[in-house]
Amino acid sequence: MIADFVEYFLFFKNDKGIANTYYTYPNTNLCLAVFRQSKIFFNTPTEHIIHTTAHQYKSILTGLYDGRLTVHSSGVLDEFCIILKMDGIRRLTAMPFNELLGNEDVFQAIFGSDSRFMCEQLFDEPDFDKRGAMLENYLLGSLAPNVPAQQISYLLREMAGNSNLRLAHFAQSVNISRNKLFRDFTSNIGQSPKEYLNTIRFRKAMNLIISKKYISLTDVAYALGYFDQAHFIHGFSKYGGVSPSMFARRISVVDDVFVVGS
Fold this sequence. Notes:
- With 262 residues, the protein is α+β, with helices and mostly antiparallel strands.
- It has two domains: 2-140; 153-253, Homeodomain-like (Arc Repressor Mutant, subunit A), CATH 1.10.10.
- It has helices at residues 97-100, 106-111, 115-124, 128-140, 150-161, 167-173, 178-189, 193-211, 217-223, 229-240, 244-253; strands at residues 6-14, 20-24, 29-44, 47-62, 69-73, 77-85.
- The protein has a six-stranded mixed sheet with strand order 1-6-3-4-5-2.
- Strand 3 (29-44) and strand 4 form a beta hairpin.
- Helix 8 packs across helix 10.
- The chain is globular, with a radius of gyration of 19 Å.
- The chain starts with 5 loop residues before the first strand and ends in a 9-residue tail after the last helix.
């Protein structure tokens, strides 16, 4: 089933070429984005620029970054994004993460040169629902023989429910050494378990702030297991680029252009 490794698809189209700037944040999923006649410049590790070029197709894999990313988009844009579960990429390829991240033809690297014909078909289809159905069929027909290690998939589910999970305790419960679990996790996910847990906690904090379902930011901090308010501010600012209070104020002021991800 597609839901075993894909969370959802996103389709964007900007025929008018209106310039736009938005933020995106570290997430607990991966985004495989494919662009038609656009190019991404990695201006800095925290800033990407997308603009129209003569290149027919470009594609990148994003999600494994440790801070707020600013994206500047200009020119005509036609894009589809495959939002993968963190272990979902391993259902499609065994390529190391260092060969996938930063590769501007990652879709072709994963699926081969024939994938360009699939891109042509997808971008020629104006109906997004039909695009989604075509993309789902293509992915299901392109599954790699490898699957993520069972312990890693189990650990990801446990982490999602408990961002304060102790790795040593989990390793003992599945009868595997902590060092092996660390190596397997980093190899399959591209991040250390600690980095991933910090990302989960940040996303939970961000979503609580957006929802406004809290009495104070101190309550958010303690609900998510931060030691104290200073620990919360430091941890949130590292991933969000601003303090929790500043983030909350910006959300209320520029909600229509402040893109926060899924």
